[in-house]
Amino acid sequence: MIVRVLGVGQYRLDDASFATADEIDGRVQAAADADDAAGFEAALAELIELIQSKGTELAADEFVGSDAVVPGPGTTLQDARALLSSEGLIPD
């Protein structure tokens, strides 16, 4: 699974890390659905941290399509609404 963090880069996640990211994404989506800006920002920060710490960053000159796009650090709930789908940031 290739995940792009906007403004940061692309990362390859293994299956275990993807499963964890999917769980965190559920909290991101739930906070967004509840209009909980603080919860959204906390869950998004956790998701980005997981992607960066467990993923393998792709080289800047390696061009591959992303399976999921995650808003970058510091993105507010209002800014992220355009990216959210009914499946969350990471599609099933």
Word description of this protein:
The chain is α+β, with helices and mostly antiparallel strands and 92 residues long. The protein has three helices and four strands, in the order ββααββα. It has one domain. A hairpin with a 3-residue loop joins strand 1 and strand 2. 45% of the residues lie in helices and 14% in strands. Strands 3-2-1-4 form a four-stranded mixed beta sheet, covered by helices on one side.
For the structure shown, list the relevant keywords.
four-stranded mixed β-sheet, 14% strand, 92 residues, 3 helices, 45% helix, alpha+beta
What's the topology here?
Blueprint: E1 2-5, E2 9-12, H1 15-33, H2 37-54, E3 56-57, E4 68-70, H3 77-80
Parallel strand pairs: 1-4
Antiparallel strand pairs: 1-2, 2-3
Helix pairs in contact: 1-2
Order of adjacent strands in the largest pleated sheet:
3-2-1-4
Return Rg in Å: 12 Å
List the quaternary state of the chains: single chain
Give a quick account of the main beta sheet: strands, pairing sense, barrel closure: 4 strands, mixed
Helix content: 40-55%
**Count of strand segments:** 4
Low-confidence stretches: none
Q: What is the helix/strand order? A: EEHHEEH
DSSP strand content: 5-15%
Structural class estimated from helices and strands:
alpha+beta
* Basic shape: globular
Query: What is the overall pLDDT average?
Result: 89
What's the number of domains? 1
Distance between the termini: 11 Å
